[in-house]
C-alpha cells in the first residue's frame, strides 16, 4: 500500500502515525493485503455473504426500563475529565 | 413566473415514543438532568452489546405501513462508521441495505388539492448524545445517546417550498395520530433536513444542496424559498451551484454554507454483527396492524362524508386524534355533528386556551360535553348559559346538570324576572326608549346590552329583544 | 476420594475463609512471580463479589473454586485493561454474564490474567503490561491471546480460567501449556462483558485442568442471555444423535507441521482407532482461504469495535491538548500497540468504499463456502480431529515465528470461528518436554459430544501440571 493510502486510512481510523511508524506499518499492511489477494482465486458465484453465523433470528427486547441500573454518577466519574454532570472534552467548535 | 423547476426532498427524523432507548434499557425522556439516563451500553463501554427494542420496531413498521412502503421481511441493522464526540461508539447503529420500509408513497393536501409524493425508505436508528459548548470545553450529555430515531427519506418530489411545509404538517399530524411521536420540533422530537435543486424545465434534477437547522415547518418553507432565489440568481448570472450543505440562519433569514469537512464521509457500512436480522412474524404483524389508526387525511374525508362537516371544520376536528375521537364519541350519542363541531372549534378552544388546558387533560369529559349539547338542543338552556356552563365545567370539574342547579342559572329563563329587568333598564334610559319608538334600531342594541349586563349575561338574547320590543310597542 | 474430589477440597481450602484467602493471595503472588500470568491478583475482592452474587453456594460443583479471568472480560470492581495502555486504570462497573453465572454458582474470581492486547496475537507478547512465560519452559511463550489463562491453569494457580477465542486464542495457548481449551459454539455463551474484537467470530472460552472441570464450567456459563441477542439455548437444548463408535474425520494433508506435532497427530489417530472408533480421511478444499478470510473479517469488525477507545468517556486520555480531534488521535496513537494499530488500519481499509467488494464482501462469501464444506463433512463424520498449531510453544522473540508467520499458522483454528462450531483442544502428553495439544471439532451446539470423546481419550484423568505447579507443591 502506498504511503498516501496508508495516511488516508489512518486518518479515517483516527490514529496519528509518527513518521517512523508509517514506513514500518506500510510494509506490514502490504504483506497482509498481498496475502488477502489469495481470496481472489475462490469461486464464490451465487453465494450470499455470511453476516451472522448461527445467530438466532428476531430476538428482541421488551420496552421495559432497567430495574437495577448502575448509578449514573459512577459512570460519569469514569471520564478522565468531568464536572460531575457532564463529560468534558476540549471545545469541538 | 418561475423559469426553473424545483425539486425538493426531505429527510425527517422522529423520536419514537418508546419508554426505553432503542438498543438498551435506559429510560428515554426529554429534559432530565444530564447524564442520568445512561448505562454501559449506550455509553459504549468495553464489552457491551446492543439489544433491539421491540416497541421501536413495531412503531417503525406502523409508520412504514402508514406510508405505504414495502415492508421488509428480513430487516437488517448496519454500522455507519464515523468519529464524533457525541457518538459514544464512534459508529451509529442504523439501517442501510435492508431497512424497515422502501418504495412507499404519501398523499397530503397542498394548494387546495391533493398531492402524492414517493418515499424512498424509512429506517430505524439510534440518536447521538448532546453537546454544549462552554468556553474552552465541550460538555457531553449522553441522555439522548441511543434513543430511538426513525428516519423517513422522501424522493425529491416536492415542487415548491409550500408543498414541503404542507407535507411536514400533514406528516406531523399523522405520527401524532399513530402515537409514535409527539412531533415537537422545538424539543427536537421531529427534525427535518431539506434538499433542493433547480433546473430549467424539463432538464431533470439539478445540483442538490442540503439545508440543515430547520426547527419548524415554517423555517423549512422560508429556507427553501430563500434557496430557490439564491440558486436561481446564481444560475442566471452564469454561476454554478456547488453541491454542499448549508445552514438556515433564522436571524439573518438566509442560508449559509457550512464549510466543514462534510465532503466525502466514507461511512464503511457493514451489517451489525451484534443484532441478528429481524424477521417480523405473524404475531408481530398482527400487533402492528391492530395498533394502526385511521389516518388524518382519510378521517377528514370521512368527517365530511358521514357528518356533512365543512372542509374547515373537518380539518379542525382531525388536527388531533384525541379531538377526533372525542368528536365521534359525542356525535355517536345523538348530538348534532355541525353544532358539536362549531362548539368545539369556537368556545371550547377559546376557554381551554385561556386556562392553558388541552382537551385531553381537561375536566370537559365527553359525557359532560354530550349533556351540554343535549340541554342546548332541547331548549333547557340557551347559548349564553351553555357558554357559562362550559367555563364552570372547566373551572370546577363538575357535571353540567349539577352546575346548572347549583349556580341557579335556570332563573334567567323566567320571563317575569326578565320583564322586571327590562322595565328598570327602560326607565333608566328614557332617551333610548324614545329613539327606538321613533325607529332608531341602533338604540336597540344599546338597551339590549344594558339588559344583558343587568342580568349578568344570563338572559336569552332572543327573549330580551322580543320582550323589549313588546314593551316599547316597537317593531 | 478420587482425584477430582481431592482437587476440589484443595481449592476450597484456599477460599473458604478470610485467612485462607490471604494465604492464597500470597501463594499466587509467589508462584506467579515465575511466570507473570496475572495482571491483577485480588482473591479477597473476588470473594466479596462472589458473596454478593451467590445463589446456591454449597450445591454447585464449582462452589468455592477459584478462577482466573482474561483481562478482556469484565469483572465488577476489577480492572479491565484488555492488555492495553488505552484502558490503563479503567475499573469495570459491571460483570460479564459468564462471570455473573460463575459467581451465582459460588466460584470466586481471584484475578485478571494476561493477554495479547485486545485479543490480538498468538503469544501474549503483545500485552502492554507484562510478558507471560510458559510454565513448562520459561524461555517460551504460553501462546495467545489467552496466554495468561493457560499459564495460570498449567502452573496450578487456579483449576480453570475464562479466556476468549476469536481465531484460536483459547485452543492454541491450551495446546502450548498442556491444558484443556474449549471454544464453545458461537452464541452458546453470552459475549456480554467480553471487550469486542471480532463480534461475529469470537466466544468466551474455558481453559481448565480436566474434561470434567471444562464441562462443569461450560454448563454454568452457557445459555441464552437477554443482554446478548446473538446468544442461544442451542447447546442447552441439544440432543446428541451420534453414538459410539464415533467416526472421526482426519486430514489427509498435514504438510507444514513440525515433526513433533505431525507425529502426535498420527499417534492420536491411531489411539482413536484403537478405541474402536472409525477414521475417515477428509480434505478441506477451502483450507487455503480460511486465514485470509478470517483476518479480513476480523480486522474489519475490530476497526469498528475499537473505535470507541478515544479517552473521552473512560480509560487513558492524552492531557493538555486543546483540540478534541488531536486529543483522540494522540490517545489512540499512544494507547494502542503496533499489532492493534496494524489490524485497525487493515480493517478500516478493507471496508473502504471501492475496496469493500474485493475484500470484506468476498471474505464473507468465502465464509459461506467454508460453512457449506464443513456442514457437508459433518454428514459423514461425527467429529474432526485437527492439529491446533503447526509447532509447539515457540521461543520469545522467535525469528521463525514472526507476527506474520503466526497469522499464517492460524490455519487450523480459524475454521471453527468462521463456521461457529465448537472445538475442544486437549493435551496428548509431552514431546521434547513440551506439551502438544490436538483439537476435536464437532457440529454446532454438540459440546457434549466433545466432552464425551475427550473424557474417553483422557481416561478420566486430569492434566499433567507443569513442573513446580503451585497446587502440586502446596497440596498433599
Elements of chain A, N to C (H/E): HHHE
* Global Rg of chain B: 30 Å
| General shape of chain B | elongated
Structural class, from helix and strand content of chain B? alpha+beta
- Total domain count of chain B: 3
Number of strands of chain A: 1
What is the helical fraction of chain B, as a range of percent?
A: 25-40%
Spatial extent as radius of gyration of chain A:
23 Å
User: Could you list the spans of chain B in which at least 5 consecutive residues all have pLDDT below 50?
Assistant: none
Mean pLDDT of chain A: 92
Mean pLDDT of chain B: 92
* Contiguous uncertain segments of 5+ residues of chain A: none
In terms of DSSP E residues, the strand content of chain A is under 5%
The count of helical stretches of chain A stands at 3
Coarse structural class of chain A: mainly alpha
The count of DSSP E runs of length 2 or more, i.e. the number of strands of chain B, is 14
**What is the percentage of strand-forming residues of chain B?**
15-25%
General description of the model:
The complex is a heterotrimer of chains A (93), B (475) and C (476). Chain A has helices spanning 3-12, 19-36, 72-77; one strand at 87-90. With 93 residues, chain A is mostly helical. Chain A has a domain at 3-41. Chain A starts with a helix and ends with a strand. Chain B has 15 helices and 14 strands. The longest helix of chain B has 20 residues, at 217-236. The radius of gyration of chain B is 30 Å and the shape is elongated. In chain B, helix 2 (161-178) runs antiparallel to helix 3, helix 5 (296-307) packs across helix 6 (311-317) and helix 8 crosses helix 10. With 476 residues, chain C is α/β, with parallel strands linked by helices. In chain C, 39% of the residues lie in helices and 13% in strands. Chain C has helices spanning 3-15, 18-35, 43-53, 97-104, 147-154, 171-177, 211-221, 259-274, 287-305, 324-335, 338-351, 357-377, 403-408, 414-419, 447-458, 470-474, and strands spanning 38-41, 66-70, 108-113, 160-165, 180-183, 203-208, 247-251, 278-282, 383-387, 423-431, 434-441. In chain C, helix 5 runs parallel beside helix 6 (171-177), helix 9 (287-305) crosses helix 11 (338-351) and helix 9 (287-305) packs across helix 12. Chains in contact: A-B, A-C, B-C. Strand 1 (87-90) of chain A pairs antiparallel with strand 8 (137-141) of chain B.
Amino acid at each position: 500500500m502506498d504511503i498516501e493510502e496508508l495516511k488516508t486510512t489512518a486518518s479515517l481510523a483516527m490514529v496519528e502515525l509518527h513518521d517512523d511508524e508509517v514506513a514500518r506499518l506500510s510494509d506490514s499492511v502490504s504483506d497482509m493485503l498481498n496475502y488477502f489477494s489469495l481470496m481472489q482465486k475462490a469461486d464464490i458465484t451465487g453465494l450470499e455473504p455470511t453476516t451472522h453465523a448461527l445467530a438466532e433470528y428476531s430476538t428482541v427486547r421488551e420496552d421495559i426500563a432497567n430495574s437495577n441500573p448502575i448509578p449514573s454518577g459512577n459512570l460519569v466519574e469514569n471520564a478522565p475529565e468531568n464536572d460531575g454532570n457532564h463529560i468534558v472534552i476540549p471545545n469541538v467548535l | 413566473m418561475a423559469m426553473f423547476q424545483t425539486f425538493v426532498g426531505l429527510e425527517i427524523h422522529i423520536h419514537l415514543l418508546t419508554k426505553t432507548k432503542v438498543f438498551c434499557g435506559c429510560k428515554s425522556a426529554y429534559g432530565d438532568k444530564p447524564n442520568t439516563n445512561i448505562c454501559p451500553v449506550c455509553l459504549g463501554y468495553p464489552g457491551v452489546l446492543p439489544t433491539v427494542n421491540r416497541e421501536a420496531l413495531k412503531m417503525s413498521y406502523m409508520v412504514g405501513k402508514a406510508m405505504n412502503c414495502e415492508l421488509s421481511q428480513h430487516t437488517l441493522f448496519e454500522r455507519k462508521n464515523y468519529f464524533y464526540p457525541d457518538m459514544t461508539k464512534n459508529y451509529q447503529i442504523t439501517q442501510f441495505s435492508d431497512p424497515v420500509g422502501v418504495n412507499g408513497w404519501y398523499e397530503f393536501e397542498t394548494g387546495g388539492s391533493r398531492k402524492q409524493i414517493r418515499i424512498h425508505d424509512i429506517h430505524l436508528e439510534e440518536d447521538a448524545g448532546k453537546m454544549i459548548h462552554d468556553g474552552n470545553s465541550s460538555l457531553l450529555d449522553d441522555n439522548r445517546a441511543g434513543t430511538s430515531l426513525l428516519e423517513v427519506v422522501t424522493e425529491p418530489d416536492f415542487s415548491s417550498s409550500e408543498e414541503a411545509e404542507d407535507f411536514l404538517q400533514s406528516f406531523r399530524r399523522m405520527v401524532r395520530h399513530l402515537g409514535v411521536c409527539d412531533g415537537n420540533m422545538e424539543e427536537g422530537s421531529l427534525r427535518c433536513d431539506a434538499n433542493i435543486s433547480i433546473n430549467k424545465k424539463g432538464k431533470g434534477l439539478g445540483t442538490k444542496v442540503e439545508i440543515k437547522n430547520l426547527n419548524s415547518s415554517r423555517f423549512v418553507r422560508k429556507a427553501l424559498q430563500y434557496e430557490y432565489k439564491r440558486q436561481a440568481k446564481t444560475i442566471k448570472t452564469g454561476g454554478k451551484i456547488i453541491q454542499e450543505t448549508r445552514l438556515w440562519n433564522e436571524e439573518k433569514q438566509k442560508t449559509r454554507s457550512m464549510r466543514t469537512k462534510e465532503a466525502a464521509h466514507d461511512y464503511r457500512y457493514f451489517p451489525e454483527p451484534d443484532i441478528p436480522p429481524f424477521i417480523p412474524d405473524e404475531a408481530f404483524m398482527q400487533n402492528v396492524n391492530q395498533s394502526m389508526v385511521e389516518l388524518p387525511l382519510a378521517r377528514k374525508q370521512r368527517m365530511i362524508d358521514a357528518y356533512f362537516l365543512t372542509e374547515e371544520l373537518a380539518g379542525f376536528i382531525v388536527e388531533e386524534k384525541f379531538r377526533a375521537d372525542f368528536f365521534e364519541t359525542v356525535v355517536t350519542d345523538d348530538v348534532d355533528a355541525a353544532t358539536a363541531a362549531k362548539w368545539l372549534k369556537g368556545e371550547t378552544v377559546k376557554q381551554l386556551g385561556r386556562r392553558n388546558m388541552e382537551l385531553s387533560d381537561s375536566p370537559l369529559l365527553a359525557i359532560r360535553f354530550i349533556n351540554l349539547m343535549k340541554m342546548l338542543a332541547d331548549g333547557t338552556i340557551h347559548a349564553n348559559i351553555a357558554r357559562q356552563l362550559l367555563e364552570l365545567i372547566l373551572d370546577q370539574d363538575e357535571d353540567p346538570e349539577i352546575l346548572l342547579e347549583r349556580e341557579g342559572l335556570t332563573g334567567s329563563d323566567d320571563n317575569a324576572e326578565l320583564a322586571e329587568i327590562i322595565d328598570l333598564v327602560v326607565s333608566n334610559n328614557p332617551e333610548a326608549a324614545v329613539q327606538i319608538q321613533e325607529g332608531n334600531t341602533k338604540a336597540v342594541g344599546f338597551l339590549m346590552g344594558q339588559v344583558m349586563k343587568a342580568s349578568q349575561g344570563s338572559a336569552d338574547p332572543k327573549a330580551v329583544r322580543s320582550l323589549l320590543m313588546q314593551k316599547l310597542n316597537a317593531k | 476420594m478420587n482425584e477430582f474430589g481431592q482437587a476440589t477440597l484443595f481449592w476450597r481450602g484456599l477460599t473458604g475463609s478470610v485467612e485462607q484467602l490471604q494465604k492464597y493471595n500470597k501463594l499466587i503472588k509467589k508462584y506467579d512471580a515465575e511466570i507473570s500470568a496475572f495482571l491483577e491478583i485480588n482473591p479477597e475482592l473476588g470473594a466479596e463479589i462472589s458473596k454478593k452474587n451467590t445463589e446456591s453456594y454449597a450445591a454447585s460443583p464449582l462452589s468455592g473454586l477459584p478462577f482466573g479471568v482474561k483481562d478482556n472480560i469484565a469483572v465488577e470492581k476489577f480492572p479491565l485493561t484488555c492488555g492495553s495502555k488505552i484502558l490503563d486504570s479503567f475499573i469495570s462497573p459491571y460483570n460479564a454474564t459468564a462471570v455473573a453465572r460463575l459467581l451465582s454458582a459460588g466460584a470466586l474470581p481471584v484475578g485478571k490474567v494476561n493477554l495479547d492486547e485486545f485479543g490480538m496475537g498468538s503469544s501474549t507478547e503483545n500485552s502492554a503490561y507484562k510478558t507471560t512465560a510458559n510454565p513448562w519452559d520459561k524461555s517460551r511463550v504460553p501462546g495467545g491471546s489467552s496466554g495468561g489463562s493457560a499459564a495460570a491453569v498449567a502452573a496450578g494457580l487456579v483449576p480453570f480460567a475464562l479466556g476468549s477465542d476469536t481465531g484460536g486464542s483459547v485452543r492454541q495457548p491450551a495446546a502450548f501449556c498442556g491444558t484443556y481449551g474449549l471454544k464453545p459454539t458461537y452464541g452458546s455463551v453470552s459475549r456480554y462483558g467480553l471487550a469486542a474484537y471480532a463480534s461475529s467470530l469470537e466466544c468466551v472460552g474455558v481453559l481448565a485442568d480436566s474434561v470434567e472441570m471444562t464441562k462443569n464450567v461450560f454448563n454454568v456459563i452457557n445459555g441464552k442471555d437477554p443482554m446478548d441477542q446473538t446468544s442461544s439455548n442451542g447447546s442447552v437444548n441439544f440432543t446428541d444423535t451420534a453414538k459410539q463408535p464415533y467416526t472421526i474425520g482426519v486430514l489427509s494433508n498435514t504438510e507444514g507441521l513440525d515433526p513433533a506435532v505431525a507425529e502426535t497427530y498420527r499417534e492420536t489417530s491411531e489411539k482413536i482407532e484403537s478405541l474402536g472408533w472409525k477414521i475417515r480421511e477428509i480434505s478441506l478444499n477451502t483450507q487455503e482461504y480460511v486465514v485470509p478470510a478470517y483476518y479480513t473479517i476480523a480486522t474489519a469488525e475490530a476497526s469498528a469495535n475499537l473505535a470507541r477507545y478515544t479517552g473521552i468517556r473512560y480509560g487513558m486520555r492524552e492531557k493538555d491538548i486543546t483540540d478534541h480531534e488531536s486529543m483522540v488521535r494522540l490517545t489512540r496513537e499512544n494507547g494502542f500497540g503496533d499489532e492493534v494499530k496494524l489490524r485497525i488500519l487493515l480493517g478500516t481499509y478493507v471496508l473502504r468504499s471501492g475496496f469493500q467488494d474485493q475484500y470484506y464482501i468476498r471474505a464473507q462469501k468465502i465464509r459461506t463456502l467454508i460453512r457449506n464444506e464443513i456442514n457437508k463433512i459433518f454428514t459423514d463424520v461425527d467429529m474432526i480431529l485437527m492439529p491446533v498449531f503447526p509447532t509447539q510453544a515457540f521461543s520469545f522473540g522467535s525469528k521463525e515465528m514472526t507476527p506474520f508467520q503466526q497469522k499464517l499458522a492460524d490455519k487450523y483454528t480459524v475454521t471453527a470461528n468462521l463456521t461457529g462450531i465448537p472445538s475442544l483442544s486437549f493435551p496428548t502428553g509431552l514431546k521434547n518436554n513440551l506439551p502438544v495439544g490436538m483439537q476435536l471439532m464437532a457440529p454446532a451446539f454438540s459440546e457434549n459430544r466433545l466432552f464425551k470423546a475427550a473424557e474417553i481419550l483422557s481416561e478420566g484423568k486430569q492434566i499433567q501440571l507443569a513442573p513446580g505447579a503451585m497446587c502440586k507443591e502446596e497440596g498433599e
